[in-house]
Amino acid sequence: MLYRLIPTFLLALSLAPAAAQDEQIYPADQPVVTNLWHRAADISPRLRAVEAGEFSPDGQYAVSGGKFGYEVIKWNVIDGTVAWRAAHESEVECVTFSPDGKRIASGGEDLTLRIWDAATGAALHVIRLKDAGLDGIAWSPDGRFIVGGDEAGNAIFFDATSYQEVRRINCGSTINSLDFTKDGLRLIVGGNIQTPDANGPGGKRYEGFARVIDVATGSVTLSIPRQSGSIKSVRWSPDEQLIATGGFDNKARLFSAATGALEKEFSNPLKIEAVAFTPDGQYLVTGGHAKAINFYRMSDRELALSLPSARVEYIDFSADGRTMLIASEDSGLLSCYLLQSDVQARGNYQQIADKQLNNQDLKHRP
């Protein structure tokens, strides 16, 4: 079976230093995915939902944000134990680590962006927002900026040292998702534009948008064609040649990052909440209301694997691609999975092992 429990000691092995990225150690035709643990990450009397979950830069920890319990929780990835808990005054919508892993930022419906000491959970700073709560958050790769996407359609740049607002760019009605390029020079934001419509939900019409922002100037350099229904998730491909979107029109899409042209569309039976690429670029992974985690091969852009799951709200991968984090909307679960390697079957296990161990196998020492 591809989907089964695995002992904790194997997870410890998975958290060891990875082989170089140019060494293909995962199966190229179909991923082998193993569940490591499920944890209740949102506790409330009636409803439970985890709005976001992300790995620390070193992959040793994870952080989650709860919708109904209002908690930010830091987790030890090795065994799924809680490192610490902290709380907002209302729903937590988004969480992220600083690039050096020393701080955590979280935002939510209490009109705050909160900064926490990642080691202890101590509150370092609270930014009081003026207009609307945050739905998305991203920390620039150079550590200089924390950018929040709010429910008024603003991408708000905060200095990550002084915590002062330095720029505000309005892109629509709500920003749900943000993602920086690796060099931090571009930021993609996705969300919705709302217009009056007597026949729409709540008397509104929702159109999804995705826009690329030049971080230096604040100008929009690329706009993806509008889509029916809100865009809930946007991501750059690892080589930054593609942009992936997922939204409430039940579709995930791939666009050219150079031109904005549509390259591929993946249809699902229900709404999509999350998209993410595996760090090696072999797969696009999607999840949402259909209670499945879908892996699409980038080589032929076909479905490679569909894993049963609770409703998916957020997907993240550790930097080395070995572990996957799933935040679930309807169960309050945070789930961690292992992507198993295929090195022995490919006959190159010894080559990679020798390089990684640097020929220091203690069994052969006198």
Any overview of this molecule?
With 366 residues, the chain is mainly β. It has one domain (8-359): Methylamine Dehydrogenase, Chain H (7 Propeller), CATH 2.130.10.10. The protein is 4% helix and 51% strand. The protein contains 2 helices and 28 strands. A 4-stranded antiparallel β-sheet has the order 1-28-27-26, with helices on one face. Strands 2-3-4-5 form a 4-stranded antiparallel β-sheet, with no helix packed on it. A hairpin with a 3-residue loop joins strand 19 (242-247) and strand 20. The longest helix is centred in the last third of the chain and has 9 residues, at 349-357. Mean pLDDT is 90; it is low at 1-7 and 17-22.
Summarize this structure as a short list of keywords or feature phrases:
366 residues; globular; four-stranded antiparallel β-sheet; mainly beta; Methylamine Dehydrogenase, Chain H; disordered N terminus; 2 helices; 51% strand
